[in-house]
Amino acid sequence: MEKKRIRMIVAYDGTNYHGWQLQNNGITIEAELNRCLADLLGEEIRVIGASRTDAGVHALGNVAVFDMTGRMPGNKIAYALNQRLPEDIRIQKSEEVDGDWHPRRRESRKTYEYRIYRGEFPMPVKRLYSYFVYTPLDVGRMREAAAYLEGEHDFKSFCQTGAQVESTVRTIHSLWVEEQDSDLVVRVCGSGFLYNMVRIMAGTLVEVGQGKREPESMREILGALDREAAGPTAPAHGLTLVKYEFMS
User: What per-residue confidence (pLDDT) applies to 140?
Assistant: First the structure.
């Protein structure tokens, strides 16, 4: 029987998972999707994800594709699959696409949000989805610093040491720090991101907000091409992949 390719928009709470990609040492989003799709369709399934989010990172709109031979309509798979998935993973949409459509081979923009909770004490209901910072943060300084990171740069200083990539040059289309009551949201949109790049950017911006660095130090950090020049890697649980936009 001829195969057809299905595209899904996948939302998940990453708290209980060792990231997206298959691992030998723990349960992952990819493994759960493969398992539940195989159970639903009665054939071996291997999904391909657009973004391999890290352990503890959340998503509102990651994208994945898989090939199947069954007759179930693509737009019905979301309904049937959600009946089998754990409650912290849900398909937001499913549809049939061209057989050569691949999420990592299409020009795209993706948007992440890093959430920071400001308070005198931690807030239990926010502990899984935001980074608690008890020291005052100067939002104006953080916004000034963020502006230096927009555009095309070599972000080697904002990449976890040891990452295997051909190039550390990336383009940031927008980077903004927004106040939402007691939360600060660092929202970044780019064509692609390096390993831990958004979390390192968030950790560095927090240091700027605390007065430990000057906003214009972002220029020197970029120029250093050295991970040691930037700030700490902010915790994974504050990060959410919000959406993908495909240009074609």
Answer: 98
Where the chain has pLDDT below 50, the residues are none
Exactly one of 54, 88, 98, 181 is catalytic; name it: 54
pTM, rounded to two decimals: 0.95
Among 172, 175, 173, 177, which residue's Cα sits nearest to residue 209? 177
Main-chain phi, psi angles of 175, to 5 degrees? -145, 115
Report residue 89 as tokens.
């993973």
For the four alpha carbons of 137, 140, 145 and 150, in that order, the dihedral sign comes to positive
Residues 114, 238: Cα–Cα separation, whole Å: 5
Of residues 165, 90, 137, 169, the one with CA closest to residue 234: 137
CA dist., res. 9 & res. 66, Å (int): 12
Active site residue 39: no
pLDDT at 186 (0 to 100): 98
What residues form DSSP beta bridges with 110? 190, 244
What is the reported pLDDT for 53? 94
